[in-house]
Amino acid sequence: MNATYLAYLIFAATVTVLSFETQGDYSEDYKQELKPRLVVLTDIAPADVEPDDMESAIRLMAYADMFEIEAIMTTVGWNCDPYPEEWSKYLDQVVEAYGKDVDNLKARSKQKGYLTFEEESWRQPMGYWPSVEYIKSRIMPGSHRGGIGVVGEENDSPGSEFLISLALEDDPRPIYVAAWGGGNTLAQAIWRMKQRYSDDEMQTFLRKFRIYTITDQDMKYDMRMNRAYSSHQWMRREFQDDLKFIWDENTWQLQCELGKQHWNKHQQYIQNNSALGRIYPNYKWGVEGDTPSFLYVMPNGLSDPNDPHQANWGGYHTFGLSPDEQTNAWTSWEPMQKRITESYKKRFYPDELNDFCARMQWAQDGKGNHNPEVYINGKHSSRPLVVKVKAGKTLRLSAKQSKDADKDKLTYQWWQQPEAGSIGKMLTIIGADKPVAKVTIPADAKGKIIHIVCEVHDNGPFNLVGYQRVIIRVQ
Q: 33-365: which CATH topology?
């Protein structure tokens, strides 16, 4: 282990969890935090065809310190079946721009050098900016034809084989597949694994993956309602019990429309700021429709992506009948869920966009504002904190130890997400706009779960936000 790697392990370590009788019993030990593992399937194209994948790829590079980018694979999409191999050059342009900006971005976490290539290729701690050589090594073609009909002996690709190798690694972290285009590459990997391994081994393989699809693009646009054509329906039907499948037919449309409404801000703070900003294209249909697929995984303390009920920048989802009306998935397309998702997306979007603008300032200048770090009763994590409390007691939650690297003034907002818990009613939060809040647990709440979010803004440029979700388990 070299000195740089050791420094980053120390940088990524979280505080030891203690137990406070009056502040709840914190039951989990939050150890060193690693980035979430992310695979992107993109149908990136010329700007005059469809610029949103290019936009999303640029934003992803601005957050390369928060995701372990295992692979970016070119694949089929609505406007390209089969996928033209020459279009992959647009992905290369994004990575080249990242290479020009990464030294400035590294200043955000005071990173001096890089891990060795072998260390980068294993486990990356939170806050680590990977080298451009590492990113280039993880770009590869996936399946370039669409539909379930092509899945089989002739559809293997470097991408599908790499997905298999990722699943076989001795790494307990789940692998999040963000399908900006079709998910055919994952379908092929699943099909191939069925030829090679037993049912028990297949179950282990499938449970490593979570897929978030931006609509269903495993086909041409003019046949998009022919759900049986797509490999997505096959994955949902055959592997519902083991493969967590999010089919988003709502958040991506909101992302597009809200981006158009705030386009002036994109022009002012994103376009032409840094090498990445200079290649950020104008929108055609909508702005960054694919971005919710990785915002959903964002390790910012707001949610655990293993639980789609927990609202975050990538939406809110419930399990049930999918839009094909034949299979089940995690979705937000039915009217009630759609309204809930829309309300959360509109709530989060200003902070989400400000966060991106601030990162582009770092890419341009090598300096800028940092997000507040939210500590609840002395504890901080990119994942929700879990606390046990007895029914009938009053829980005291203190964010007084929250930190801001720029010494900015902080403001606080505590709120409950009722859809994520089982309490079945809204509770009164005393001091909801103060550093310290109190929640009285109903006497009849034994066995219930309550989700409270602490949202902290600074008064620096772009008024950046930090979050910490607290999951209360009532004893």
A: Inosine-uridine Nucleoside N-ribohydrolase; Chain A (3.90.245)
